[in-house]
Design brief:
This protein is α/β, with parallel strands linked by helices and about 500 residues long. The chain is built from ten helices and 41 strands. The mean pLDDT is about 95. Bound molecules: uridine-diphosphate-N-acetylglucosamine and calcium ion.
Amino acid sequence: MNTELAPSAVIVLAAGAGTRMKSATPKVMHGIGGRSMVEHAVAAARDLNPERLAVVVRHQRDKVAEHVLAFDPEVTIVDQDEIPGTGRAVEVGLNALDAQAPVSGTVLVTYGDVPLLRPETLRELIAFHEEDKNSVTVLTTHIDEPGAYGRIVRNQAGEVTAIVEAKDASPEELEITEINSGIYAFDAAVLREALLEVTTNNAQGEKYITDVLSIARSKGYRTSALAIDDRWEVEGANDRVQLAQLGRMLNNRILETHMRNGVTIVDPENTWIDVTVTIENDVTLLPGVQLHGSTTIATGATIGPDSTLTDMTVEADATVIRTHGFGAVIGEGATVGPFAYLRPGTALGKDAKLGTFCEAKNSQIGDGAKIPHLSYVGDATIGEGANIGAGSIFANYNGLVKSRSVIGAHARMGSAGIYVAPVTVGDGAYSGAGALIRKDVPAGALAYSETSQRTIDGWVLKNRAGSGRPGVAPTPAKAAKAAGAQEPAES
Ligand code: UD1
Ligand code: CA
């Protein structure tokens, strides 16, 4: 980071209503890429290391303020009054900061609903603004159908002389394809001086920040524009169609960064990764993977197909197939899935396995331990090298409290075991199939549950000779007869 270019202040505008979202949630709190739009905007501003950072709110101010302060408690929340417009929003922002201590030097203005703006671009804007000794520099881009955007008016010499709102523009001005992004660098003193002259004399009856440029110029200050190529960076989301488009663009950007860092992404169209996720090189992501929150994936791991991991830690060389997981740790070389469900507090050790149709919650599964099939492991500690047979259930809840079960190292637990917590099985113990383990099992012991089997010869031929449904053949009886089964003798 170049601290020389740190601005004195950034003012993020987030007071607008955002009616086109048709949502109970404030527009700037709608999210893409794992963060709300306003969090993206504040994170980009924060990356510049500004001395002060203000967010201007009005619409649903309590919700927005609480949300912003939750991820960045250092932000100054400023309330816009009933005077409408971007110019008023900047004015209240600047006044509030001035009241703390007068602002001097470069002030940036950005929007809370423009989530793709990169700190690099803001740094370019500051560098251009300061090297050019401008008082106002507006960030612009070219758009073939500029629609409702403000137009950048330049004179014969190519200097920027005004920004004209579409609603106030002449037919000739509407032809201009260079548009106002709404992102600016200002000299604080010039901004303060020019804002005093901004009126609401326009088609919308609002105080326009855009007027500051022509006012500053009329006072003899230098005004300029920095045009960027990537229009997506300055695009805002006004409705959910645009939100999805921006989400896709942001995701593309995130995926590209990971791919350039050495991550294989087989199907970028069907892979979604939050900005907050960390992935080491030589990780392979198969189609249909979503990585969210604080998830980290270490080198050599393979994730997917079709897995969603939130706040997960996946260690090196692990394999995770068709899995839904959150808040769990998958150890080095461990294998998970297909069709596994990991819940918070679960940690699989090195080379451990949680296999097909298994759920684990708040459980420590030791190095090399295996739960290969169809099991629920809740509130359990499973020792290293233990094997839990197919269809096992850790009954952790008696309707009042949850308790833990412990299975010792290298234990061999038979299929369809039920562990009624709290219960402990010692190291190296065995259990028979279908064991109902209610009492502790000492190390090296065998535990099994006796459930006697009765067999009644010929029962099918006697009791199910016909299917009972007209026209449906009595298949089991037929098969039994063909195999030589006899009807029982009358008793
Ligand atoms: C504004 C610019 C326009 C530019 C466009 C880019 C003005 C007068 N016009 O258009 O030249 O092309 O942005 O998107 O500035 N906001 C407030 N308080 C308000 C009004 C708006 O904080 O009273 C915030 C909104 O929350 C939003 C941003 O300012 O983040 C832009 O508001 P919006 O109404 O979308 O922009 P326009 O005024 O239409
Ligand atoms: Ca407006």
